[in-house]
TrEMBL record:
Pfam hit, one: Pectinesterase
Substrates-to-products reaction catalysed: [(1->4)-alpha-D-galacturonosyl methyl ester](n) + n H2O = [(1->4)-alpha-D-galacturonosyl](n) + n methanol + n H(+)
Function: Acts in the modification of cell walls via demethylesterification of cell wall pectin.
Protein name as catalogued: Pectinesterase
Keywords: Aspartyl esterase, Cell wall, Glycoprotein, Hydrolase, Secreted, Signal
Signal peptide positions (record): 1-19
Phylogenetic classification of the source organism: Eukaryota, Viridiplantae, Streptophyta, Embryophyta, Tracheophyta
Record carries keyword Secreted: yes
GO biological process: cell wall modification; pectin catabolic process
Coiled coil regions, renumbered to chain: none
């Protein structure tokens, strides 16, 4: 099922979204109502499953609510998760499309687990492998303690996103290392908060991060500096990459790189983003990639702040012109007009 909002409806929902949640992972001052009337209307459903950890809904467990959705589901189902800390691993399998997982705000509704593993996917607190999935107002956290670098205790993923046409609005992702495994598919992150140290947004998806806050935690275990992204694009024909539009990158401790090369055609763009002094002057690194740098696409456009100084950038880093940046700034980079409920 394809869905599309444009014009006044999209604008109205955007205003509703912006007014309903606060930035930076903190709770808002008031309770939000269950669901968005406008969004619900456009999804053509009143089918809502209520999850309440205190027993006030049909289920106390988020996973139990997801399990209740029929396999092959082709109509939107709203799973509203009331405030609380839900300590469980949550998986949206391939055969459960059209799920709208709605929380009461990322400072109020939390999905939390604690696991490290040599297998990133196995460690993930939250996994989505079905297309047509929306999450709104939820925090995803892997609270496993920082392990020993280069060992099986190193990976602790908060969310694994392994499906096409997935959107997160006003969500938060917390871990130390490998926070967000943005594995594959077309994804949209709007007004999200993402926290980590090394490679904490990684994978080979085609994703737009709009007005997101990226918070860096210094990793004291190793001599290398941390990195916000590790994009794994293998060839020129692979239509993937991470694009960050507006938002900001800031943090504490040692400086970090905007990204490192994970594949020979690694592609990451930061546009119109505030970069604090957390960003190392070189900006980008290929420390773990043995190949040449001629095909790397590590680029910036119209960024601001002390970390945006381009004077000492890596030699392959690109400073884009307005014309060069335009394809990445458009929602068409992820074909969003075809499947997103709302975008800015």
């Amino acid at each position: 099922m394809m869905f599309k909002l444009q014009g006044l409806v999209a604008f109205a929902i955007t205003l509703f979204v912006s007014a309903s949640f606060t930035h930076g992972g903190h709770p808002s001052g008031e309770d939000e109502k269950i669901g968005s009337p406008l969004l619900t209307q456009e999804l053509h459903t009143n089918n809502t499953i209520l999850v309440d950890i205190n027993g006030g809904g049909q289920f106390k467990s988020i996973q139990a609510a997801i399990d209740s959705v029929p396999a092959g589901n082709n109509k939107w189902v709203i799973i509203h998760v009331r405030r609380g800390v839900y300590r469980e691993k949550v998986h949206v399998p391939q055969d459960k499309p059209h799920i709208f997982l709605r929380g009461n705000g990322r400072g109020k509704t939390h999905i939390v687990w604690s696991q490290s593993s040599h297998d990133n996917i196995e460690s993930a607190t939250f996994k989505v492998e079905s297309p047509y999935f929306i999450a709104f107002g939820i925090s995803f956290k892997n609270e496993a303690p920082t392990g020993v670098a280069y060992t099986s205790q190193n990976q602790s993923v908060a969310a694994f996103v392994g499906a096409d046409m997935v959107a997160f609005y006003h969500c938060a992702f917390y871990s130390t290392h490998n926070t967000l495994f943005d594995y594959k598919g077309r994804h949209y992150y709007d007004n999200c908060y993402i926290q980590g140290s090394i490679d904490f947004i990684f994978g080979r998806a085609r994703s737009t991060f709009h007005s997101c806050e990226i918070f860096v935690i210094s990793d004291k275990r190793v001599s290398i500096k941390g990195s916000v992204t590790a994009n794994h694009r293998e060839n020129a024909n692979e239509c993937s990459g991470f694009v960050f539009i507006k938002g900001k990158v800031y943090g504490v401790g040692d400086h970090v790189y905007l990204g490192r090369a994970k594949g020979p055609f690694s592609r990451v763009v930061f546009a119109e983003t505030y970069l604090s002094k957390t960003i190392v002057p070189q900006g980008w690194t290929n420390w773990s990639y043995a190949g040449g740098t001629e095909n790397l696409f590590h680029a910036e456009y119209n960024c601001k702040g002390p970390g945006a100084d381009f004077a000492e950038r890596a030699p392959w880093a690109k400073q884009l012109t307005e014309k060069e940046a335009a394809p990445f700034l458009s929602i068409d980079f992820i074909d969003g007009r075809e499947w997103l409920p709302v975008w800015i």
